[in-house]
Amino acid sequence: MKRQRVGSSLVEDVQAELREEILSGVRQPGERLLVQPLSKRLDVSLSVVREALTRLAEQGLVGSAPQLGFTVMPLSVDHLNDLTRVRIDIETMMIRRATVEGDLDWEAGVLAAHHRLAGTSPESGGAMNPAWRAAHAEFHGAVASGCASPLLQNIRAGLYDKAELYRAWAVKVSGGRDVVQEHRQICEAVLDRDADRACELMAAHVQLTTDLLLESMPDVDVP
Fold this sequence. Notes:
The structure is a single chain. The chain is built from nine helices and five strands; from the N terminus they run αβααββααββαααα. The protein is mainly α. It has two domains: 7-72, Winged helix-like DNA-binding domain superfamily/Winged helix DNA-binding domain (Arc Repressor Mutant, subunit A); 77-219, Four Helix Bundle (Hemerythrin (Met), subunit A). Strands 1-3-2 form a three-stranded antiparallel β-sheet, with helices on one face. The longest helix has 25 residues, at 77-101.
């Protein structure tokens, strides 16, 4: 069926479709993303596919190189460790500010986002549930939104996007993890405006995702 949307809206559609294929595991880390076959399958122009892939590269989900084109970003131990350390630094900095700067609307937003997340199943068919992925992003964004710095908000959002590929793979090895309790404890500490406790919980939450994935990496095909 011919796509009806045009221009930037069409690029957004293709970007969203390819992003979901990457994060659901349909596209493997390191897999080449050939523009022409994608253009034919998605029934869009080559330029639309290139723009969508370029945007995904900006999010850290796709890599690009001269002569090689686009590939799904491979999993990297060094990159994951570095990304985790920086994410913890930024997330905890913003939580400390949020517990001081956040108002009642911020508290209500955190509570509503947590309620939605708690009511959504993380897995669907052995892969991460897209609805849970959206609710998870909303919750973490809501917690950080109490920080009044637009610059920090942009930095945090970029780091969160870059962690999505790792998070999608970590769900495969997180069977024994009580992620519901982790989020509930973070929510409670934030709403209590207990910055030390909230930062401790957030750091442990982010680090555990990394630790579980690192433990599994010998059994994962990591280019």
